[in-house]
C-alpha cells in the first residue's frame, strides 16, 4: 500500500471512530458533517482494493458499512416523512439532499438497461426499496411510463411511508406496489419480473449478498435481467462490493464504475436459460469507467429529466 492509500485508509478510520461514538445517527448538523466528510474522502480518485487490506481493517470497514446503512435509512425515513406531509408529495421530492445523485444514477441504470434488454420491461421489482423509493419513482415517471414496479422491503413502516409518497398520484398509484416481506421468502413470484433491481444495502456482507443473489438466480425467469448496485475502489468503504465473477447462473452483460458524485457501481446480468444454469458467469471484456464511455458525461445518451418535467 502506497503513501496515498495509507493516508486514505487513515482518514476513513479516523472518521469511523468519530461516527462510532455518536449516540444517534439521525440527521443532524454534526452527523451530516461527518458523513459528508466520509463521502468526500471515499470519492477521491485514489485507487485502492479493499480486499487487500488487513483483516482488522476489513472488519472495521464492515462495521462502517453497517453504520452507513443505518444512517442512510434514518435519513431517507426523515425526508420521506417530511416530503409525505405535503398535499402533493411528488412535487416536493427534490427536498431530499441527494435527489440529483438519484437522477443521475437512474439515468445511468436506464441507459444500461436499454442497451442490454431484448424487450421493453413491463414488470419490474426493486428489492430493498426503503421509505424513499426514488429510483422506482424516477424510472416510473421519467423513463418507464408503462411498467409496473413492485417494491420489496422487510420494514412495514418503510413501505407505509413510501406508499404515502405516491398514493395521491393517479398514475403511479396504479403502477407501483409495495410488498412487506423478506425477498428470501419470495419464490414463484420472481418469475413474473423482466428486471430485478437489488439495492446496495440488501445483504451487508459477502455471505448475505451471495445467499440473496443465489435465491434470485434460482427463481427469476430465464432471460430476466438482474441489476445490482455495488462499489469500487474507495467507495467500498461505504457499500458492499459485488464480485461479478461470483454471479453463478447469470451472464454478466455490463459493469460500470462511476467516478463523479454518484457512489454506486452498477452491474447488469442476465439469468441463464435452463440449459445454462450451471455455467460460470460470463464477464464482459470491458468495464466502463471515466477513461472509457461514461453515460453520465454524454448528454445525448438520455436527456436528464426531473419529476416536474414528466410528460402526461
Automatic annotation (TrEMBL):
Which species is this record about?
A: Bauhinia variegata
Q: What is this protein called?
A: Uncharacterized protein
Amino acid at each position: 500500500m502506497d503513501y496515498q492509500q495509507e493516508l486514505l485508509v487513515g482518514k476513513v478510520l479516523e472518521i469511523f471512530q468519530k461516527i462510532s461514538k455518536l449516540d444517534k445517527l439521525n440527521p443532524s448538523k454534526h452527523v451530516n458533517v461527518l458523513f459528508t466528510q466520509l463521502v468526500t474522502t471515499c470519492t477521491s480518485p485514489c485507487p485502492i482494493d479493499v480486499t487487500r487490506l488487513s483483516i482488522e481493517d476489513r472488519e472495521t470497514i464492515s462495521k462502517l458499512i453497517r453504520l452507513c446503512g443505518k444512517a442512510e435509512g434514518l435519513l431517507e425515513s426523515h425526508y420521506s416523512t417530511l416530503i409525505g406531509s405535503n398535499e402533493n408529495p411528488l412535487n416536493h421530492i427534490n427536498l431530499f439532499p441527494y435527489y440529483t445523485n438519484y437522477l443521475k444514477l437512474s439515468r445511468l441504470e436506464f441507459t444500461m438497461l436499454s442497451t442490454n434488454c431484448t424487450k421493453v420491461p413491463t414488470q419490474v421489482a426493486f428489492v430493498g426499496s426503503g421509505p424513499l423509493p426514488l429510483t422506482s419513482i424516477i424510472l416510473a415517471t421519467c423513463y418507464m411510463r408503462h411498467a409496473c414496479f413492485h417494491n420489496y422491503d422487510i420494514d412495514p413502516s418503510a413501505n407505509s411511508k413510501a406508499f404515502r409518497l405516491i398514493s395521491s398520484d393517479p398514475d403511479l398509484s396504479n403502477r407501483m406496489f409495495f410488498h412487506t416481506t423478506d425477498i428470501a421468502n419470495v419464490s414463484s413470484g420472481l418469475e413474473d419480473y423482466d428486471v430485478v433491481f437489488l439495492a446496495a444495502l440488501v445483504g451487508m456482507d459477502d455471505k448475505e449478498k451471495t445467499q440473496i443473489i443465489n435465491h434470485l438466480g434460482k427463481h427469476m425467469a430465464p432471460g430476466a435481467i438482474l441489476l445490482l448496485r455495488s462499489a469500487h475502489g474507495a467507495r467500498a468503504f461505504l457499500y458492499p462490493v459485488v464480485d461479478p465473477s461470483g454471479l453463478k447462473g447469470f451472464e454478466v452483460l455490463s459493469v460500470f464504475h462511476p467516478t463523479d458524485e454518484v457512489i454506486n457501481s452498477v452491474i447488469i446480468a442476465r439469468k441463464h436459460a435452463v440449459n445454462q444454469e450451471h455455467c460460470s458467469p460470463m464477464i464482459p471484456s470491458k468495464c466502463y469507467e471515466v477513461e472509457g464511455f461514461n453515460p453520465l458525461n454524454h448528454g445525448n445518451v438520455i436527456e436528464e429529466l426531473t419529476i416536474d418535467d414528466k410528460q402526461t
